[in-house]
Amino acid sequence: MAGDVLLEARGLTKRFPGVLANDSVDLLLHRGEILGLLGENGAGKSTLVKMLFGIHQPDEGDIYFKGQAVTNDGPGEAIARGMSMVHQHFQLVPPLTVAENIVLGNEPISRGFFNKRAAEKRVREISEQYGLTVEPTDVVGDLPVGIQQRVEILKALYRGAEMLILDEPTAVLTPQETDELLVILRQLAADGVGIIFITHKLREVLAVTDRVTVLRQGKGVGTAETANSTSASLAELMVGRSVVLRVEKDEAAPAEPVLIVNDLHVRDDRRQLVVEGATLQVRAGEILGVAGVEGNGQRELVEAITGIRPIDTGSAVVDGTPVGSKPRAVRELGVAYIPEDREKDGLVGGYSIADNLVLATYYEEPFASRGVRDFDAVAQQAEELVEQFDVRTPSINTPVQSLSGGNKQKVIVARELSKENRLVVASQPTRGVDVGSIEFIHNQLITARDAGAAVLLVSAELDEIFGLADRIAVIYEGRIVAELDPTTTTREEVGLFMAGGG
User: Fold this and answer.
1) N or C, fewer C-beta in 10 Å, the chain?
2) Do 32 and 187 touch, CB atoms closer than 8 A?
3) Is the distance from CB of 452 to CB of 284 less than 8 angstroms?
4) Element (H, E) at 59
């Protein structure tokens, strides 16, 4: 049960050049409460919590922690007061052990030296106290993502955190790891820890939070009791309009196979076989959804199909042409690719939006002629696509790295889906984006299908798979272990195959 007020923010305002990121935002968090913080990409959520944690200083407004006005001149001061933040991209040192990561910077010392045994003992005590099972001697770089997140939370608790800020904590987790995390958060709240939980996933908000505060365009537009809220009401509060959360689509009319994958074997970066005999087909005019726990070969399968990773044995064929190891040649077969990691594989952060929109076609007409670039043609296309795909930006010349996550994803979708495609490979296409952007991206994939493209959708989100796919293929340990009809199967049946059963 939520107790006394732990944190209060009054009228927090933050300006950046040309941007009012937060406009007089109020926030209240009680002990033992999980407060959801919702908003579209660019609504100001990250800026707000960075002010609370001392990464940014507010231009106006006040912060009170345990009844005292505070000015956190950096995260160090916030941590010393009992605040902590678990970032979406973990702040861990992979070669160190779990215990070494947790105590880093605050190590137990004996006779002037680091007392490793004492560190491991203390980590075991904290992990047992909070039900966060970890092995202190494990090397962090060898751990699954879900366990690494436990290490981040334990690092905060080791430093005496009374308040936790979790920024998109489930963005990189499997459904099973997500469910485990939500149980852990409830346990922490029961022990009196106040938690601010930032997420785009309304199912998680409804499952674990007590109240929800919503930001829109930098302003606080309301706080609701979760028990009195629905996915539809929260989505409407976030985007200021009614949002269709269920994908609306006509029945597929599949035609000839466009992609044929036969007995495919692919190695990972360590030269280990991770795709071991995968076989599947995707037909024109249909969406094949590939479901599976991450780490079962999905990334390598996709990279082999798109020519990024060499095929060991077996084949991937697009319209009768075997896929080779040259991505440009694969693209010229009519293959579009939405990668799972937009920052690493989808965009060049320092380039403008206009330049990112021609990354794969800069050498083709009308964008170039005889090796000379036509800047007017590049700019004209960018203006058209920014409007068509609702990319929210002050200018097509804005560096893409300055956009919110959802708008970055829209740039990729605009580049990939604005041309005629025979095959669309979409890997985690809505990871880390808000409900409004998810609705838009889903509609674009349906539009591509209805225009006759074959769509291969790889997603860790079962709701997305069931909402979009005309057929479901389940991948486990590099093999397609089941093909299912989404109209006649259940989430539980799919989950059983994902876990190697069935």
Assistant:
1) N
2) no
3) yes
4) none
Q: Where are the beta strands (DSSP E) in 364-470?
A: 368-369, 372-373, 423-427, 454-459
- Between strands 109-110 and 113-114, the pairing is antiparallel
Amino acid (1-letter code) at residue 89: H
Question: Vertex 258, ends 252 and 259: CA angle to 5°?
Answer: 110
The model's pLDDT over 243-279, given as tens digits with 9 standing for 90+, comes to 666 778 899 999 999 999 999 999 998 899 999 999 9
Q: Per the domain annotation, does 71 fall within a domain? A: yes
Could you report the per-residue pLDDT of 223-241, keeping only the tens digit for each? 999 999 998 899 888 878 7
Strand partners, 282: 259
Condensed to tens digits (0 to 9), the pLDDT of residues 463-500 reads 899 999 999 999 999 999 999 999 999 888 888 888 78
Q: How far apart are CA 179 and CA 174, in angstroms?
A: 9
* Full residue range of the structural domain in which residue 297 is found: 244-334+420-502
Mark which of 394, 417, 440 sits at the end of a domain.
Answer: 417
- Amino acid occupying residue 51: M
Same domain, 352 and 410: yes
Residue 456: strand pairing partners: 288, 425
Same domain? 279 vs 425: yes
